């Protein structure tokens, strides 16, 4: 796993939390929810290949 993906996830988390706070204080809770959902989906799409690789490695471990 690359270290850069951890920094990308952290950056998205910080950005999403700041945007959500700004949107909530301005009375736009619906947009804050959509921003947090978009951030979650973006990070999920980044880590899906790593999860897939993990399951492949585990499967190869138990197949003789």
From TrEMBL:
Going by the UniProt record, its keywords in alphabetical order are: Membrane, Transmembrane, Transmembrane helix
Q: Which one Pfam family would you cite for this protein?
A: SpoIIIAC
Superkingdom of origin: Bacteria
Residues that span the membrane, as ranges: 6-23, 32-52
Keyword Electron transport, does the record have it? Answer: no
Query: Is Endoplasmic reticulum given among the entry's keywords?
Result: no
InterPro entries for this protein: Spore_III_AC, Spore_III_AC/AD
This chain's protein is named: Stage III sporulation protein AC
């Amino acid at each position: 796993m690359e270290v850069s993906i951890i920094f990308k996830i952290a950056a998205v988390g910080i950005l999403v939390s700041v945007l959500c706070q700004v949107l909530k204080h301005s009375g736009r809770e619906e947009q804050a929810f959509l921003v947090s959902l978009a951030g979650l989906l973006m990070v999920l799409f980044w880590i899906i290949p790593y999860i897939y690789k993990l399951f492949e490695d585990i499967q190869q471990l138990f197949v003789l």
